[in-house]
Amino acid sequence: MTRFDYKTLPWNIIFGTGALARLPEELDKLGLSHALVLATPNQSEQGQEVVSLLGHRAVGLFDQAVMHVPIETVEQAMAEVARVKADCTVSIGGGSTTGLGKALALKLDLPNIAIPTTYAGSEMTNIWGITENERKVTGRDNRVLPTLTLYDPELTLGLPAKFAGPSGLNAMAQAVVNVASGDDNPMVSLMAVEAVRVLARSLPRVIAEPQNMEARAEASYGACLAGGSLGTGTTSLHHRLCHTFGGSFNTPHAETHTILLPHCVAYNALATAGGTQRLAEAMGVDNAAIGIYELAKTVGAPTALKDIGIRESDLDKAAAIATEMPVNNPEPVTTKRVRALLENAFHGSLPQPIA
Ligand code: NAD
Questions:
Q1: Which of 74, 106, 130, 206 has the greatest number of C-beta atoms within 10 Å?
Q2: Which residue, among 207, 202, 235, 238, has the nearest Cα to 219 in the 3D structure?
Q3: 196, 285 in Cβ contact below 8 A?
């Protein structure tokens, strides 16, 4: 008999090519009139364009968002919010910029609008993360869910292949852990399976034909679904490992997801046989873990921890940090088994179950 608990999130989504033009009227509808636009230094120009588009509704641009939301950046941005008397933030960028908007929402109860330009999926979740003293602390709080998420796939056209591939696999991870989770929530996995199907099909096309709008739009749609499944679903060992490497070793977020995902799927394959099979079917492959590993190669993403700055001598510390607190995961988690998983991920070996 099917049994499940399900609570949805109050998403407010506008999706479509050219949707950015609707931002000013949507801000008016929300009764917001003093927007602080957030961006990374890389996307300062795009941030400035949003400031221009908003006209009198914008009170400034804070273009210092960085990966993993360091507390120092949050504090600088909080000071800027106070200085310009902002009544909301508008994040244009990837998960780092969305994450800064979320951190400000958490600290200041400030509405945040997300305009994603990668496939991070953060804009669909109520999960925040802030890095302090080399540890990334994360939590769920509905106050951080964007008041509005505006997807305009045209904004992803400039995302270079070296970011697009790992970013898409980061989205896929959010869906994958909610298909092969052991919890098998049918409402969540409905969205998650579709996300996997759409992403597996679109990502190779995004890399092969970067200006193909149909493929770009499909990948953004996949990210929206994947983020939605993470927002209403669960996380497991995979996310614990990614946060360990991101928070304690400062590895790039999407690449870390890409490398670890196939190994975590293989780790859980016995405990989640049904879900893992659904994953494989959605991807059109025989073995889900190997299918994800091959997809990473196809999109030119890294497949080995040693290629993103991790040394073999870091693995013991990483395994210890990742397992110092209990972790929700279908297969039992021990420091020894995690260390074995990391050994495979370090070398970029074919993913395999860990005894
Ligand atoms: P990112 O936001 O750091 O972006 C990577 C780089 O690409 C940045 O320099 C950015 O400015 C640039 N960029 C983004 N879009 C571009 C475009 N269209 N054209 C040109 N350059 C562009 O990377 P990310 O992978 O999107 O996000 C990673 C962060 O998101 C991490 O901190 C991670 O923890 C967080 N995240 C959070 C959640 C959540 O639910 N809370 C989910 C996923 C990711």
A1: 206
A2: 202
A3: no
CA 116, CA 176: separation in Å to the nearest integer? Answer: 21
Q: Mapping DSSP to helix (H, G, I), strand (E, B) and coil, where does residue 298 land? A: helix
Residues 6+ apart with CB under 8 A from 3: none
Dist CA 66 CA 245 (whole Å): 16
| pLDDT value, residue 133 | 86
Distance 314 CA to ligand 1 centre (A): 25
Best CA proximity match to 147, nearest among 123, 168, 165, 171: 123
- Distance in Å, CA 116 to ligand 1 centroid: 8
Spatial separation of the C-alpha atoms in residues 305 and 132, rounded to whole Å: 23
Residue list, ligand 1 pocket, CB within 6 Å: 40, 42-43, 67-69, 93-97, 99, 117-118, 120-122, 125, 127, 129, 155-156, 158-159, 163, 167, 170, 230, 253-254
Q: Determine contact, residues 172/199, Cβ cutoff 8 Å.
A: yes
Please tell me the least confidently modeled range out of 73-82, 145-154, 183-192. 183-192
Structure tokens at 313: 């001598």
277, amino acid identity: Q
- pTM (2 d.p.): 0.96
Give, for 249, the enclosing helix (H) or strand (E).
helix 237-249
